[in-house]
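ok so heres the complex, three chains, lmk if somethin looks off
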Amino acid sequence: MSASPALKDEIKLPGMDLKKIGKDLYEVFIGPQHPGSGHMRIIIRVDGDVIVEADPDLGYVHRTMEKLAEGREFIKVIPLMERMAILDACNITLPYVEAVEKLMDIEPPPRAKYLRVLLCEINRIASHLYGMGIFGVFLGHSTMYMWPFGDREVFVELAEKLTGARLTHTYAVPGGVRRDIPQGFREMAEKAARYMEKKLEDYKRIFLDNPAIQKRLVDVGVISKNLAAKLGIVGPNLRASGIRYDVRIIEPYEAYDEIDFEVPIYEEGDAYARAWIRVMEIKQSLNIIRQVLEKMPQGDPLHEKFWAKAPKLYKTVYETTGRAKLIPLYANLKVPAGRAIARAEAGRGEVIYVVESENKTKPYRVRVVSPSFRNAIVFKYIVPGHRIADLPAIYGSIDYFPPEADR
Amino acid sequence: MSQKEGKAYVGNLDVSARKAQDLLLNKAKLGKLVDWATAFSLWPVHLTTSCCGCEFAATWSPRFDAERYGALPWIASRQTNFMIIEGTVTKKMAKAVKVTWEQMPYPKFAIAMGACALDGGIFYNSYNIVRPWQIIPIDVFIPGCPPRPEAVARAIIELQKMIRTKGLASQWIIKGYREEALKYYTGGEG
Amino acid sequence: MAFIDRIKEIMSSSGIEAEVSEGKGFIKVKVPLEQWEEAAKALASNGFDHVKTVTIVDYKARGVFEVAYHVSSFLDTGLAKYIIELSTEIPRDNPVVKSLVGIWPSAEFLERESFEFFGVVFEGHPDLRPILLLDEVVAKHPLRKDFVVKEEGIFR
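and the predicted structre for the whole thing:
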């Protein structure tokens, strides 16, 4: 797999001149079996131990979701797309649900909007903790793997209480959500939030303020503001480069416009800033969860269009237990023809869906571009110029999740 | 070898070693020792094939702590003897799985985790996946999408039981190959 | 001035015959294939600095692929809330379109992906080779409508 001549001009971007080095290059294949458990391979060419060229080789987890979506009913596409990032399930499928809602011209009831935001933020925290844990594995910092993964269980359990499933919730459905908030959830959430706030201080002490970690992360993998915009990277990585772009504030979806929160921004753009930004975002998410539970309006969790057609048994079950079952109406959900685009801020960045319908029960085309796929370009343009030992630090700091990237 | 004669008769080294192995391992107690030791030192290789990796990671996190069964994910395939297939295996990944599996020293074991690893699961009609049992011999299957960490822990215990009751490890060492696994190698498209 | 009028103005001032219409969640700018690159340049010079998706839709009945780039802006917060769909149609039997990587570097991997899934050739792409699939799968161009996967119903 040799580099095309055109590529050599492109590689000037990070300030390396490939032509000077030329002959004594050594090719190293990193992955797909490597200590970070990544399902991805990076082919790097090194001169000494300086990387001069990196070629990310994706697709180890490409499970053809876009094609399979064309053959399934609208409601069945949700669990299918969820497998892209099961640790961030609500965020990653929310834009699809929104796009279908846009096509059907319905708006979920306010309570459903708040419930969606609630699960989205729980997912975001869990996803960030997962990313931090894997970052720890990459840096050989075992404690940083153990602590966030242990604490992640708190939020996974919270999501389980809310939806009934640890990871694959399928919570948001067109027109609302699948279940109402269970009893005792508020106290549990408050307890979790208090615990997490305490633990964030511990993370700072053991990981972020650790001189060894700082030596490995500061000024490593710097993405400047302009370069970040040029490469089109998304999410916390973009915000660590000083760009104030978060779909939650740019185009507030669901109930985000009624909630008061900040989006942390760092100007440095290095791996250390990307580590920090996750901690700060967790703080904001805890803030959002508290506000959501406070401001949650009363009402049905499902749009009345569906609710009115629900069998009587379903209503009794809902009224007595708070659990709304999936109404059979969804099985043959016909979506009016047209194209809709929706986006949301998932844990790793902006996820965008293009849904095209032909007034049938199955979509004509579902196009999804996930944040990790858009971040993958970083490996090609940021990694060259660093030493081979910096690669795990950059890989970990990007919080790259291959199943999400490959779809 | 005895002190009186003052000489050591080695003879054909290969034959001697073979005889010694037969003598030692076929004695029930040492074979059992091998099985016991293998059952509690299962080292899964760091190869995550799909999204069940989230629950795989959670299994080794403090809440579920699968390390107490003597299993700890390890880095290099040469130093591991256990593989957990986490979910779907794509055609591209199948090659990596096969290469990693061949690199691992025997006796080695595999667990297939998740509905996708059983028969495709939600991706049953995808054009880019293979069933893991077409590539490597699987000892234990875990259903679920994704299986909970408790299920993974249970599968490890099941595997330990299998190793100890069926003598998988010691039989493999004695024979040099694994008889029941042969059919997996020949079947399927790989 | 409504935002859609501003896009119309950008297009007409660059001499591009574009059909500008409002879609659900985006603004559609449909341009003829000959003016594809000029339209992209006009958008890029007006602050649209990155590509969000490269979407190709296969209209088999009409015999065309619709190539759509969804572009927006990171640096200009005024533009960030709009998604512009820059689209054109190319014939299905000769799917060639000019690559826009020179204008938007962020399209690089997205174009490679579209190349392998649909067989659309992006002229001028610096490194056009498959990214996700193995060569044997790429040959089938799996996202085209004539590649059919078997589907089991509830009752088979």
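quick notes: The mean pLDDT of chain C is 85. thats all i got rn
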